[in-house]
């Protein structure tokens, strides 16, 4: 069944006003009166809804649905600005894998350089990608996208998290294999985990030192060296295995 995210609080009857959502509902998917869809509001509860009037875009909420597919932990993925369209790929796939938020920051060794205007345009594009991925994967929550123009603004957010882990190549080379497991297994449902990843060139020693001074721990992600766009997917998959699979 089709699913759509609707901004605001649930109310019935409801008029859908977002132009992109309306276009997809009634022009692309050709919804008609009495057709049913799933709507997800800001509270994260899925609700079965029925089309009352396709011309006026009116819906009636039928019932709340028990479906809950969010990760037990609120995991934020933070990447040093990667090259090309890798951030688009990361946004889509980490949304499918359950990321609570998607962040990116100007790492010391980032090749990509984006000013505020480009970042705003990029964030808008990434938010649309995350929206599509969240609807496809039937998420209860829509990941929030934040692109930081200044690294200091990114660092200032560390205090919001219960744990901060840095995926560090040198830790993997040194045989570190326990930090991610220990961190995840030591957290309770609803707690917040920040996972940090470098760009193509990795994270600089100075950045690692700064992160550790702010309370972060370095973690290896297995013996193989992963690409910038692969590491976040590996880490989120590992979190899912540790938290959701028995």
From TrEMBL:
GO terms for biological process: rRNA base methylation. It catalyses: uridine(1498) in 16S rRNA + S-adenosyl-L-methionine = N(3)-methyluridine(1498) in 16S rRNA + S-adenosyl-L-homocysteine + H(+). It is found in: Cytoplasm. Residues 18-62 form the Ribosomal RNA small subunit methyltransferase E PUA-like domain. CDD domains: RsmE-like. InterPro entries: Alpha/beta_knot_MTases (IPR029028), PUA-like_sf (IPR015947), RsmE (IPR006700), RsmE_MTase_dom (IPR046886), RsmE_PUA-like (IPR046887), tRNA_m1G_MTases_N (IPR029026). GO terms for cellular component: cytoplasm. Its EC number is 2.1.1.193. It is an enzyme of class 2 (transferase). Its main location: cytoplasm. Residues 70-239 form the Ribosomal RNA small subunit methyltransferase E methyltransferase domain. GO terms for molecular function: rRNA (uridine-N3-)-methyltransferase activity. Keywords: Cytoplasm, Methyltransferase, rRNA processing, S-adenosyl-L-methionine, Transferase. It comes from the Bacteria. Specifically methylates the N3 position of the uracil ring of uridine 1498 (m3U1498) in 16S rRNA. Acts on the fully assembled 30S ribosomal subunit. PANTHER family: 16S RRNA (URACIL(1498)-N(3))-METHYLTRANSFERASE (PTHR30027:SF3), RIBOSOMAL RNA SMALL SUBUNIT METHYLTRANSFERASE E (PTHR30027). Belongs to the RNA methyltransferase RsmE family. This is Ribosomal RNA small subunit methyltransferase E. It comes from Streptococcus massiliensis.
């Amino acid at each position: 069944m089709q699913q759509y995210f609707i901004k605001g609080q649930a109310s019935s009857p409801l008029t859908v006003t977002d132009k992109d959502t309306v276009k997809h509902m009634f022009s692309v998917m050709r919804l008609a009166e009495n057709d049913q869809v799933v709507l997800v509001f800001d509270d994260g509860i899925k609700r079965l809804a029925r089309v009352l009037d396709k011309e006026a875009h009116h819906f009636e909420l039928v019932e709340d649905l028990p479906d809950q597919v969010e990760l037990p932990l609120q995991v934020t993925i933070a990447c040093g600005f990667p090259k090309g369209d890798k951030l688009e790929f990361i946004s889509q796939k980490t949304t499918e894998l359950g990321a609570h938020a998607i962040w990116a920051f100007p790492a010391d060794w980032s090749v990509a350089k984006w000013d505020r205007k480009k970042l705003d345009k990029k964030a808008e594009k990434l938010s649309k990608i995350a929206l599509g991925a969240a609807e496809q994967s039937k998420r209860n929550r829509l990941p929030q996208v934040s692109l930081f123009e200044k690294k200091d603004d990114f660092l200032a957010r560390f205090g919001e998290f219960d744990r901060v882990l840095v995926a560090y190549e040198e830790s993997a080379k040194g045989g570190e294999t326990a930090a991610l497991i220990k961190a995840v297994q030591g957290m309770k449902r609803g707690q917040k985990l920040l996972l940090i990843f470098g760009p193509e060139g990795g994270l600089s020693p100075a950045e690692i030192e700064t992160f550790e001074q702010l309370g972060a721990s370095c973690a290896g992600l297995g013996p193989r060296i992963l690409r910038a766009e692969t590491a976040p997917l590996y880490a989120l998959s590992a979190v899912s295995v540790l938290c959701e699979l028995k």
